[in-house]
Amino acid sequence: MAEYLASIFGTEKDKVNCTFYFKIGACRHGETCTRIHNKPTFSQTIVLLSMYKSPVATAAVLDPAGLGVPQYSDQELQEHFDTFFEDVFIEVEDKYGEIDEMNVCDNLGDHLMGNVYIKFVKESSAEPCVQALNNRWYNGHPIKAELSPVTDFREACCRQYEMGECTRAA
What we know:
The termini are far apart.
């Protein structure tokens, strides 16, 4: 029995643990999810919740009809993103340790929008980073950092997004 339970842990057959939280470190149901969100006590990966404020995503949330949405060129959007990415990457790597990978969610789902996932080379870098960043602000907003169960970002992508069918991507 234990062997079977271990084989289905984190898969869609697991009716106890939340598959979405296990794969992407977030769940659209949040605290109302009927499955367990196993928050890690140690991890190489952290998530900075809703940290990136994309001009397009912010406008879509504030004005869903698109009536007063300012238009941005692809170059302006890329420059905005590059500035953010560089700010965060350099700050985190300089202060907390070498980064293996950093990903920023570009999705309109409330549970994913603006999440920044940072995987450190050394697991020992993650916890001090979470502790320090939870006392910091970025762009006028408090940073909410936590350890994340995500270990493989290829598995963390939304299946609908990968298939080009996601209606919530920015």
